Structure to design on (137 residues):
């Protein structure tokens, strides 16, 4: 398969007490299978973009079958996907972001299934407008 079917994935990797980022290229179908397996049992922060392109990019953080999806259509714009109401607006949950636990409100929390669906839609055509409702950060 050519580069059109590949993603560049940057993931946090923890070794001892240090967190580093690991960049790799992966086939789109393989990555979706990895995400389906990992999201149900672990916690992770990952950045996803089309192979050889920095933008648009999705940033996904998840833990305990819930998470948050952020998007960067370009270097100047940061978006966050609106939540699905599984948490109350005033509830917060800490999720891993670049080696740190970061609080997010219920406004932006989505289920593992919605994360998988969102990532699948994004890598189908890399069009953020078809993925869901975004809020500008």
């Amino acid at each position: 398969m050519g580069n059109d079917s590949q993603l560049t994935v940057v993931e946090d990797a923890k070794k001892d007490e240090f967190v580093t980022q690991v960049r790799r290229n992966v086939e789109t179908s393989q990555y979706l299978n990895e995400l389906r397996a990992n999201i149900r049992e672990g916690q992770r922060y990952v950045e996803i973009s089309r192979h050889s392109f920095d933008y648009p990019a999705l940033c996904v953080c998840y833990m305990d079958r819930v998470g948050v999806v952020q998007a960067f259509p370009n270097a100047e714009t940061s978006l966050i996907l609106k939540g699905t109401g599984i948490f109350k607006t005033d509830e917060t949950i800490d999720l891993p972001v670049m080696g740190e636990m970061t609080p997010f409100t219920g406004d932006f929390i989505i289920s593992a299934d919605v994360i998988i669906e969102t990532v699948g839609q994004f890598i189908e055509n890399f069009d953020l407008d078809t993925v869901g409702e975004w809020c500008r950060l």
